[in-house]
């Protein structure tokens, strides 16, 4: 169940306004950086951003999040430019979504928050039944509270004396329906979890070591999996191109051993815990692995804060102490001088003293060094 009339339509050709709330002390560049990733998300899904704007506030407006004056500005701009969607770069409360929808309804402008957009991208890129179930579960958990607005709408539409309880009654019915749906999805996901657990048990009996690729979305994890194992998994220069776990064999020449290498969903900043937990079934490969390869895009100017985002999520998953190698990918885009400078900075910025390696998944640079590092970590002499 999704909020608004346009939520089930593709975002292609949809003109969108992006709006963010920033603290008065945040710089203009920082505010632009915050909206840049949101714009990338919109483009990944297929939309067109026609306006990026922000409002400086010490705290969000209680009813509309962005304040009534800013809502009216967006309403006027949206009508002039033919906008049909407003996306707020945060997680909104059900009441705030409802209030914004009510104000913009007459102009046929829908309202999403950041999580709505991420869920739509997830749904677009999911390829397996398990991933689709996990997305459906996350959607129910995110959309569920919005039946508040639906209940209010039902009461208002009914109108008249003696009909006050109609919305509340329907809200309760919808709550029960969502709870039932959530239980059914959890039961189905449990079957996949059990299958995965049996597979992992079998690997342990066969004494297979496992390695998992983790990292910020679009860091090149799938490209690295393909380069190391010879697989031909789907690769795209887009956020969240991979949602499903893929497992391939990696042969280590020095020890003549095979290990299992798994790809996982990419992480992103401001991802709420309920979305992370919804993907625990898929992330279970990483949670049970012997070694993590934290893949980092060395061409990304924001690589330092993105490392921090990934580390924070790994901590939420209980993986903060799991052995790992920091794999700085895409070095082919750096000149020799830039690469040397980057290596110095990256080593200096590492607070954990994890092993580091610099590679290019597309050109093959550094892959042998990475394999040797994996061997030394998993099979120390």
TrEMBL record:
Binding site for Mg(2+): 222, 242
Principal location listed in the UniProt entry: cytoplasm
Record-linked SUPFAM superfamilies: P-loop containing nucleoside triphosphate hydrolases (SSF52540)
Binding site for GTP: 215-222, 240-244, 263-266, 329-332, 360-362
One GO term describing the cellular component: cytoplasm
Compartments reported by the entry: Cytoplasm
InterPro entries: G_HFLX_dom, GTP-bd, GTP-bd_M, GTPase_HflX, GTPase_HflX_N, GTPase_HflX_N_sf, P-loop_NTPase
Residue ranges occupied by any Hflx-type G domain in the UniProt entry: 209-381
Alphabetically ordered keywords of this record: Cytoplasm, GTP-binding, Magnesium, Metal-binding, Nucleotide-binding
GO molecular function: GTP binding; GTPase activity; metal ion binding; ribosome binding
Keyword Transmembrane: no
Pfam families: GTP-bdg_M, GTP-bdg_N, MMR_HSR1
The protein's required cofactors: Mg(2+)
Subunit structure: Monomer. Associates with the 50S ribosomal subunit.
Role description: GTPase that associates with the 50S ribosomal subunit and may have a role during protein synthesis or ribosome biogenesis.
Family: Belongs to the TRAFAC class OBG-HflX-like GTPase superfamily. HflX GTPase family.
Protein name per UniProt: GTPase HflX
Name of the gene: hflX
């Amino acid at each position: 169940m999704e909020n608004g009339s346009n939520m089930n339509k593709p975002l292609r050709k949809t003109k969108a306004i992006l709006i963010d709330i920033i603290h008065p002390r945040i710089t203009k560049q920082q505010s632009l950086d915050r909206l840049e990733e949101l714009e990338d998300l919109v483009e990944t899904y297929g939309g067109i951003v026609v306006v990026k704007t922000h409002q400086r506030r010490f705290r969000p407006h209680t009813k509309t999040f962005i304040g009534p004056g800013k809502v009216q500005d967006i309403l006027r701009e949206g009508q002039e430019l033919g906008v049909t969607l407003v996306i707020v770069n945060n997680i909104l409360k059900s009441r705030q979504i409802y209030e914004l929808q009510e104000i913009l309804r007459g102009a046929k402008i829908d309202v999403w928050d950041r999580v709505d957009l991420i869920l739509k991208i997830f749904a677009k890129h999911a390829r397996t039944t398990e991933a689709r179930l996990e997305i459906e579960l996350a959607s129910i958990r995110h959309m569920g509270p919005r039946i508040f607005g639906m209940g209010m709408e039902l009461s208002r539409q009914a109108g008249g004396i003696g009909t006050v309880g109609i919305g509340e009654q329907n809200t309760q019915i919808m709550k029960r329906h969502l709870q039932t749906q959530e239980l059914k999805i959890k039961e189905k996901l449990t079957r996949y979890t059990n299958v995965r657990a049996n597979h992992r048990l079998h690997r342990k009996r066969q004494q297979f070591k496992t390695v998992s690729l983790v990292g910020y979305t679009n860091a090149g994890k799938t490209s690295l999996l393909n380069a190391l194992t010879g697989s031909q998994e789907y690769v795209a220069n887009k956020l969240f191109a991979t949602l499903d776990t893929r497992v391939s064999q990696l042969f280590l020449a020095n020890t003549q051993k095979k290990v299992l290498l798994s790809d996982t969903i990419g992480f992103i900043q401001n991802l709420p815990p309920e979305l992370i937990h919804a993907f625990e079934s898929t992330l279970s490969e990483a949670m049970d692995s012997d070694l993590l390869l934290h893949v980092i895009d060395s061409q990304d100017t924001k690589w330092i804060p993105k490392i921090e985002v990934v580390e924070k999520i790994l901590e939420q998953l209980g993986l903060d102490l799991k052995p790992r190698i920091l794999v700085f990918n895409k070095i082919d885009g750096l000149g020799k001088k830039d690469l040397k400078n980057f290596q110095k900075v990256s080593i200096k910025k590492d607070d954990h003293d994890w092993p580091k390696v610099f590679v290019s998944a597309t050109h093959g640079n550094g892959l042998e060094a990475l394999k040797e590092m994996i061997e030394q970590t998993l099979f120390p002499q």
